[in-house]
Amino acid sequence: MSQQEVRVPVADPKNPYAMPAAMPSSVDRQPRSFDVDDFTVPRPKDPDWRFTPIARMEEFFQVFQASAATTVTVSNIDGTAVDPERVRVGDVEMGAEPTGTVLAPSDRAAVVQWHSARHAVTVAMSGELDQPVLVKIHGNGLDLDAVHLVITAAADTHADIVVEHDGLARLAEGVEISTGRHSQVSTTFIQEWEQGSKHVGNQRIHVGEGASLRHSVVTLGGDVVRIRMDQDFGGEEGDLNMLGIYFVDPGEHIEHRTMVVHNHPACKSRVVYKGALDGKGAHATWVGNALIEPNAPGTDSYELNRNLVLTPGAVADSEPNLEIENGDIVGAGHASSVGRFDDEELFYLQSRGIPEIEARKLVVRGFFGELVEEIGVPAISGHLMKVIDRRLSRGENEAMQHVLEEK
Amino acid sequence: MSTLEIKDLYASVETKEGRKQILKGANLVVNSNETHAIMGPNGSGKSTLAYTLAGHPKYIVDSGQALLDGKDLLTMTPDERARTGLFLAMQYPVEVPGVSMTNFLRTSKTEVDGKAPALRQWSKELNSAMKRLRMDAKFASRSVNEGFSGGEKKRAEVLQLELLKPKFAVLDETDSGLDVDALRIVSEGVNRAKENTGLGLLLITHYTRILKYIKPDVVHVFAGGKFVKTGGPELADELEATGYDQYLPEGANSESALA
């Protein structure tokens, strides 16, 4: 028998497209680590930071002494105490279980938060909850602070949790979310920061086998808010639904990055982020990554971002990225748009006696309302609509406020 | 009693080929309780007149006035005109996604009246108005005009006319695209609004069909950007028989004449 030489294909670094299968995915190349030195301080041209005003958040790139001024309280959404049988609230040292169990920091800001936070608040949910859990995170000033929150749901849990941020803060926040097999969970994060606040967040999310997670983010205020969300699945048939709503005022930078990873077969992901921008220097950024790994056949993924520019001078960056490494999938779609307020709609509403400013509010409320309804948990969507109306009816007289708030 | 007086109105529109004057000295007086039919060939400027009165940003007033009880509408924003008492039923009502009809109607009513309507009475009024126009109750929860058929959109326009109770209404080809039943229902709504509030009507149309249901007191021929002839209801029948050709300048192409 003669020996035959077998040539193993090797990717040519000068021409990666010659051998696409051997191309490393860009997400793979990024480090995941708890070591600060594994990440360089971001520079304006770094792909992950090119939309971010780095100079306005450079204090978040070096490990700091956290002020511990931020208060974190956990209750039911109606204010009553949680049932300790089904919602266990704890406080642990950083590094102790369950912290650090969901993925690992993915950028410099995330690893700095990990080392700057002193302890973590943990919320472990199990069974069937009667009403949503509310975590209130209240900022008490501009001294740099870091908080860490770990939300876990045991197998078969049915639970909803809302995390509200308000007050004045410069906050580095780490959130770990892990849901068990066949659980059905919704997590809703609301940012209603006072003017002057900064919030740099990293969320690490693990969706259990056959579990469904509805993950919503609503950002309505803050000078600089940048939230990066990294996610993966724990088994087949996981279902992830990420909804986002943001409202950007003049001079604000509001950024959301959703990094969805399909690493198991037959999982489904939907990412829908919608934002309205108002005024000069209002800057929104949405970057949505969806990575479908070779071992994830049957993946069904879709991501969408829509921006509504209400007045000239606002800037919206919208960047969907798809990396598909498996051809045997149900779907991988994306859509992205930045649109101006429609003049014909405005004229129609005005011709019915509605002043321009009210007309704009009606349209914006409608723009978000469709998304809020999708959340499907009445207690949460009602709560969200109230939050959005509060934002929209700023400065309204009482009678009009009443009209705007009642649908 | 109210009066709407259009005085020597000139207006233009910005086109790709530059600014083009459409209205060329329109004059008209309409009083409460009067119905004026405005008829004319395509491209004569009838819709421009309607949109200019309502304040659409596309149309630029070159000179002239439109006085509602002495107040010049043309110096007002579109919403101020509506609150002063003008209503335009559009030929192509605009879809406003995400804004429910109920919410829209109540906001509009609140603005036009200057105060929020009493809730119970309002929903009663809304429901019965919808019922009279044979509109399904589901309409109220749908987004404004979104996914409505042509006929449904026109009914929704007349619904607003009935609820907002303006002093003057311009109906821009409200009859176009309606089948016989819908035309009757819509016309009944307009007649009801007039009976209840005594509003003055400007009825823009190509065809005499709608005039069988909404009886005009005065019929005008509008051509070349102005009113060229005025008469009684018999003028409409005359137009039906002879067309608009005689009102067009020599050599002009009338689309309706060609069709």
TrEMBL record, chain A:
Recorded superkingdom: Bacteria
A Pfam family reported for this protein in Swiss-Prot or TrEMBL: SUFBD_core
InterPro entries: Fe-S_cluster_assembly_SufBD, SUF_FeS_clus_asmbl_SufBD_core, SUF_FeS_clus_asmbl_SufBD_sf, SUF_FeS_clus_asmbl_SufD
GO biological process annotation, one example: iron-sulfur cluster assembly
UniProt region (Disordered), positions on chain: 1-38
Domain SUF system FeS cluster assembly SufBD core: start-end pairs: 146-367
Similarity-based family: Belongs to the iron-sulfur cluster assembly SufBD family.
Identification of the protein by name: FeS assembly protein
Gene source species: Bifidobacterium mongoliense DSM 21395
From TrEMBL, chain B:
Residues covered by the ABC transporter domain: 4-249
Enzyme Commission number, as recorded: 3.6.3.31
GO MF term set: ATP binding; ATP hydrolysis activity
Record key words, sorted: ATP-binding, Hydrolase, Nucleotide-binding
Signal peptide start-end: none
Keyword Membrane attached: no
Enzyme class: hydrolase
UniProt-listed InterPro entries: ABC_transporter-like_ATP-bd, FeS-cluster_ATPase_SufC, P-loop_NTPase
PANTHER family: ABC TRANSPORTER I FAMILY MEMBER 6, CHLOROPLASTIC (PTHR43204:SF1)
UniProt record similarity statement: Belongs to the ABC transporter superfamily. Ycf16 family.
Name the UniProt record assigns to this protein: FeS assembly ATPase SufC
